[in-house]
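#structure-requests
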Amino acid sequence: MTEHANETPVRRGTKRILQSVLGLALLTGVVAAPATVAGAVDQHASCIGHEAAGISPPGSSAEFPGGVPEVHELLDSLGVRQGAVFSAVAKLHEGSHEACDAAAE
């Protein structure tokens, strides 16, 4: 039996979307966000804090120039329930942006 045998199609789809959002946020944080913003996140912050810091404030990220509101728009356009994605990410406390992305894999 595989590790995915007990997952429902909805759970697998949500997991894939979560991984995509985390990956985009990581890319944004590493490439486009100022180091002072990315470094300002406390290591005990939830992964939603690490990810949001990489695209905040609006205008500081080339990938998501609209900041967090743009992520909301993206999820809406994909038909994804934002609450489920943000709740899952907020429950993770991995200590760094990179560790958060690794935890989503």
